[in-house]
Amino acid sequence: MGVAVLAWANSAEQARALQAERSEASLVDRAVGGDVSAFAALYDAHLTRVYRYVYYHVGNKADAEDLTQQVFLQAWRAIRSFRRGSSPFIAWLLTVAHNIVVSFRRQYKEQTYIELEPQAVARWGNPELETLTGYDRASVRRAILQLKPDQQQVIVLRFVEQFEYAEVAAALGKSEGNIRVIQHRALAELRRLLAPEVREK
Amino acid sequence: MSSLSPEVLASCLDRVQAGESTVEECLAAHPEFAEELGGLIRAALAIAPPPAVEPDPHFRSRARSTLLTTIALEQGQAENRTFLRRVMHAIFGRPSRTGPIGRPAEMPLPVFLALAILVGAGSAGVSLAAEEALPGEPLYALKTVTEVVRLSLAPSDAARAELNLLYASRRLDEMERLRGRLQIAQYQTTAERYAYHVEQATEIGKKTALGDEVAVLVQRLALRRQVWENLLQAGAPDSAVPALAKAMTRTDAIQQVAPPPKAVAASAPAAPAVATPTAAVSAAVANAEASESLADLSKAVAEVVRVEVGLADGGAAMATEIASAKTAVEQGQPELAANNLSAFIGRLGELQRAGKIKQESFQALYNSYSEAVSCVNAAMVAKAAEKAKGNNPSPVAPASSQNASHSAPTATSTVPPTATPKPLATLPPTASKAPAATPANPERRPTPTPKS
Question: Helices B315-330 and B359-388, interaxial angle, to 10°?
Fold first, then answer.
């Protein structure tokens, strides 16, 4: 009996997820076709995620707000070139965000707002991870931000944003094999950057 | 001697993250790479999702409206009714009834507030600049959006009536300033929007008593009714004729519901009541005075062109307009001079919007121009008076000379012109106009140089 209920609940959830997917797909199609109101709906749906992504990179509210606006504007301008494939729309949006963040940081190399504002750190859950792995989150983030742009992008999409290989590959226009290679190199580099930070377990 | 492959690393990571095996089990499966594999997996596991920061709700709505407005601006080159309606829908949601500007019947409150913020305070520079925009210019869409928002914000029927009349007179200004440049679609649209606004005000007037403020606005529209006639006479495209006719009939209709203002001088800006005295002035004298004022204006323009504007960018054109105006009055055709002045102020406005002229210079020219307008108005009235007495057959000049003037209407009306163009800083946009011959339309409330 319990199993049946569980099965039903899972399929209901699946049905909901499928429905959400379909309606987003139709929104995306309309936006690509030039429908401004559809694009506005996509903005509503994805603002938080884009904002968090940008915030992670720049560490402060003012720049995060500024750049997030640029992301959506740029996304609108480029949306004709978006192809609905195995990559979710949000993944594409985050690649737009990545480019904007990278050029922003290139411009302001001298000022490294690398540290997050305290209120953001306070909202960063999961302290068990630190004792488990011996690395603290802030150092890990700092190290990630020091990676080369394409390595950084793969790491952030895979582990920070938690996309699947297929989704990352589609978003970046690369093969999955290629993604795994970049992932390997990036993790090795990350490990190297973090080496002095290792606390003995 | 093999080395750890990306695939092995990836599959270990996947299994560990999925909970299918522990790190130790992975290392045990690949003892030759244990050290490297272990280190990489640990690094991967240390990567946490981003902090759960929330975007500020004000930022969310502000950014949304800015985004949509910017999109509208970037697409504003193709100003057409369909596009404008699409922008409206995006911002306001689909309306249940559509007027000529796709006005919203219902509007989601958060969106509405965001736009009100944008319009009221946020992008002050853009909003201000938009108020001077003309059909076909990128900021015109924003001008329209601003008007729609203000209409929706109107606290009462009377306020809404007033706003509608204000916007009706704006459409008139646009028609006059664009005369000769209007594309067919814009002719129609602008005229229809004028008619729509007047009709809205009329409907309100049928239900509620309209105050003196409104009565003054109605009277000004009535005085400017000639504009539509002139446009028809000057040869509007056939497709625009119904819209122009509708503009005229609506103007007539609203006068039925608007009571005559009790004290025109009280609510209007200081306007000398010119009734009979000017009739005594002969046309010749009036022309001479007009010529003198134009000579002064011409000197002022030449100076500004020499020092600031240069001959390109409309400087030469401005000077030409004044020269032609002067010639016209000297030949006894002040109505042509009125057209020249109208074109002149249009150019001056453009230069000011483009930031090509200093504010003091603009102010000085505007003052001279106002003076010239008064004199030319007086000349037109004097001429009409003499014609009425049968003295002076008014020459109907050919449609256009070297200027932008399109219409050469005969001086038909004897309604006394109210002289003073609007003082610059005040708000209600329409100075009273002499009705004949789309008279020189003083540029109202020129904005500070917009930065966009």
Answer: 20
Q: For A145, name the nearest residue in chain B, comparing CA atoms only.
A: B47
% pLDDT > 70, chain B? 63
Q: CA–CA separation, A167 vs A179, rounded Å?
A: 10
The percent of chain B in helix, strand and coil, each rounded to the nearest 5, is 65, 0, 35
Q: Could you give the ipTM of this predicted complex? A: 0.84
Burial letters B112-147, b for 16+ CB under 10 A, else e: bebbbbbbeebbeebbbbbbbbbbbbbbbbbbbbbb
pLDDT in tens, A152-180: 999 999 999 999 999 999 999 999 999 99
Q: Which of B44, B72, B90 sits opposite A187 (nearest CB)?
A: B44
Instruction: State the count of interchain CB pairs (< 8 A) between A and B.
Output: 129
Q: Using 50, 70 and 90 to split pLDDT, how confident is the model at B94?
A: low
- Minimum CA–CA partner of A159 in chain B: B47
Lowest mean pLDDT among A141-150, A151-160, B248-257, B425-434: B425-434
Chain B residue numbers with beta carbons less than 8 Å from the beta carbon of A68 are: 55, 63
The answer to whether the CB atoms of B52 and A69 lie below 8 A apart is: no
Contacts of B44 in chain A (CB under 8 A): 159, 187
Q: Do residues B402 and B326 touch, judged by C-beta distance below 8 A?
A: no
Residue A120 has pLDDT above 70, yes or no: yes
> What residues of chain B lie within 8 A of the CB of A165, using their CB?
10
Chain-chain contact of A129 with B45 (C-beta, under 8 angstroms): yes
- Chain A nearest CA to B69, separation (Å): 11
Kindly report the number of other CB atoms within 10 A of residue B167's CB atom. 25
Which two structure tokens, joined as six digits, stand for A59? Answer: 């560490």
Listed residue (B248, B200, B52) closest to A137, CA to CA:
B52
Instruction: Give the residue from B68, B67, B103 showing the smallest Cα distance to B85.
Output: B103
What is the token pair recorded at A82?
Answer: 């978006």
Q: What share of chain A is helix, strand, coil (3-state, %, to 5)?
A: 80, 0, 20
